From TrEMBL:
It comes from the Bacteria. SUPFAM superfamilies: CheY-like, Nucleotide cyclase. This is diguanylate cyclase. It catalyses: 2 GTP = 3',3'-c-di-GMP + 2 diphosphate. It is an enzyme of class 2 (transferase). Residues 147-284 form the GGDEF domain.
Length: 284
């Protein structure tokens, strides 16, 4: 009956008849909203809700309990588990439709805000907040999968002089071009680039070997050099160049993402010190 009412509103509805089937369905269709019964055979609605809220991938999907239990304690329990609303059966069609509409609109606005807060306004690539979150996720994933992880810190050479020579607006344009060129080099789903701040960018790679790392970071350096963006006051070339410091590690409980970042940063310092427009690598 709910499916029919909501489909008639133009929503795309998928239904499951048990808690475990619901969890599988959530994985395959990643819904914007979940309507959940409390009393079901096997796993009850509270357990399904708790399982969803414990999973970072699904915890932001709003859940509305729909139940025959008309009791304040039961309602409180559902809300405490993180549900956004509670509708008692027998329900009023109009009320269900309107509440669903409201919660979908709130979800839509939250998604927009989340996207805005994870992208850099100038270059349109992910920002430092997005990178920090991605690094934590990737670190945990790599620990579980015994995969390796690479952080590459990238800094434009003599960018202060670039601004002084061509003006701040041209500097902004240059940042956009560098960001675009770096983003083009991110070829696998797990490759990630963000603007770390100012004229600094950061990349995250996994599942590459040491030879691959050398090639990959050199390609990043070359991808900027070949743009031939004129830079008459650079002491290292006649065009804009970047320096890269990268660190490679096998995440484990003895090391931390912080160490990996610190080593990449130290390598960037080395690359600058050795003359810029080059890559410096550390294998931890
Ligand atoms: P180095 O080769 O050692 O990296 O020298 P540098 O001049 O690139 O480094 P420095 O840290 O001295 O200068 C960075 C400059 O980047 C200074 C700052 O004005 C500029 N910058 C940072 N963010 C922006 C931005 O959003 N737009 C523009 N146009 N410039 C920016
Ligand atoms: Mg710089």
């Amino acid at each position: 009956m709910l499916s029919r009412i909501l489909a008639a509103e133009g929503h795309q509805v998928s239904a499951a008849t048990t808690g475990s089937a619901a969890l599988r369905l959530v994985e395959s269709c990643e819904p914007d909203l979940i309507l959940l019964d409390v009393m079901m055979p096997g796993m009850d609605g509270y357990q399904v809700c708790a399982t969803l809220k414990a999973n970072p991938q699904f915890q932001n999907i709003p859940v509305i309990f729909i139940t025959g239990l008309n009791d304040a304690d039961e309602e409180a329990r559902g809300l405490e588990l993180g549900a956004v609303d509670y509708i008692v059966k027998p329900f009023n069609e109009m009320i269900v439709r309107l509440r669903v509409r409201t919660h979908l609109e709130l979800k839509r606005q939250r998604d927009i805000l989340s996207r805005l807060s994870h992208f850099d306004g100038l270059t349109s690539i992910p920002n430092r907040r997005a990178f920090d979150e991605r690094l934590v996720q990737e670190w945990k994933r790599a620990c579980r999968a015994h995969d390796n992880l690479v952080v590459a810190m990238i800094d434009i050479d003599y960018f202060k002089q670039y601004n002084d020579t061509y003006g701040h607006l041209a500097g902004d344009d240059c940042l956009r071009r560098v960001a675009g060129a770096l983003a083009k080099q991110m070829q696998r789903g797990s490759d990630f680039v963000a603007r770390y701040g100012g004229e600094e960018f950061v990349c995250l790679f996994s599942g590459i070997n040491q030879a691959g790392l050398v090639t990959m970071t050199e390609q990043l350096r070359v991808s900027i050099a070949v743009q031939q963006i004129p830079h008459s006051t650079s002491s290292v070339a006649r065009y804009v160049t970047i320096s890269i410091g990268a660190a490679f590690c096998q995440p484990s409980l003895d090391t931390s993402a912080f160490d990996l970042m610190a080593h990449a940063d130290a390598q960037l310092f080395t690359a600058k010190h050795l003359g810029r427009n080059r890559v410096s690598l550390a294998l931890l």
